[in-house]
Amino acid sequence: MITLLLLCGALSGVTTVLFGFGGGFFTVPLIYTLAIAQYGAASPTGLAAMQIAVATSTCVMIFSAGLSTLHHHRAGSLDWRSVRPLVVGIIPGAALGAACAIGLNGDLVRYAFIAYLLITIADCLLRPGFLRRAPAPSQQVSGGATAGIGGIIGLIAALLGVGGSVMTVPLMRRRGASMTGATAMANPLSLPMAVIGTLVWLAMARHLPGTGGPGFIGAINLRAALLLAAGAWVGISLTSRFIGRLPDAVHARIYPLLLTLVTVVMVVAG
Predict the structure, then answer these.
(1) If we measure between CA atoms, which residue out of 266, 45, 39 comes closest to residue 162?
(2) Does an H or E element contain 174, and which?
(3) Ramachandran region of residue 221, left (φ > 0), alpha (ψ -120 to 50) or beta?
């Protein structure tokens, strides 16, 4: 299990740098599957497996999104002017999303995770402006509307433990950003969501049966979180040198392909 968590952490580090995923798309299915295998689906911890996966993924995202943001900033690929207005809405949205996830049935959160992936894949493939870079819109979106979009991103990302990539990358792509620029912006947007979401999980997880025992801090599996973070550090460090080197069209096509693979894992894991 140690090797598997380290490898998954490294893979999540790679995708965090190149695709802005924040690791959630890989760590949530893995931790969910391991929790079911270790504790049994019918045990209190097994019934809370999806919440444990989301909480642990959110915690690890603080490290991976923060480190990836630093690398993108050094590479000059971050457009901070586009990031700041979204952060205003992401913070309250993330708090609400994490609070909602604690009170929901674990299967419901899993089904929502799968449905969200399918919608995003279809949006990337079928709606113009993602696979081929769209021109920048002639009219700028107002600050209030941007903050509202940020709130929705924060709510869904914290609810499912996936970071902001799955919404911010298509959003920025359709605003004319390159894939490098769009994925770079997903990392600083995932960071406040991860911090707020983790604090909410720590504060409210005592209301969730099956968590808080040995090896847990609230709903966060501490051992898994540390191993995933260690793997992510390796993956991010090795991949940062490739920032901006993937051809834009290839970069855009790999994104929905990875989402498809994660969807298959979540369906099979159930």
Answers:
(1) 266
(2) helix 165-174
(3) beta
Nearest to 190 by CA among 89, 66, 13, 11: 66
Q: What are phi and psi of 162, to 5 degrees?
A: -110, 0
What residues are paired with 50 via a beta bridge?
none
pTM to 2 decimals? 0.80
Q: Which two tokens stand for residue 66?
A: 């923060």
Q: What is the DSSP letter of 213?
A: S
**Which helix (H) or strand (E) segment is 53 a member of?**
helix 49-75
Please classify residue 42 by burial: count the beta carbons closer than 10 Å to its beta carbon, then call 0-12 exposed, 13-18 middle and 19+ buried. exposed
pLDDT tens string 162-202: 666 777 888 888 888 888 988 888 888 888 888 888 888 88
Q: How far apart are CA 264 and CA 29, in angstroms?
A: 10
Q: Is the pLDDT of residue 227 over 90?
A: yes
Say which DSSP state 220 is in: E
- Tens digits of residue pLDDT in 139-162: 555 667 777 888 888 888 777 766
Which is nearest to 56 in space by CA: 230, 229, 221, 228?
A: 221
Q: Is 113:162 a contact under the CB 8 Å cutoff?
A: yes
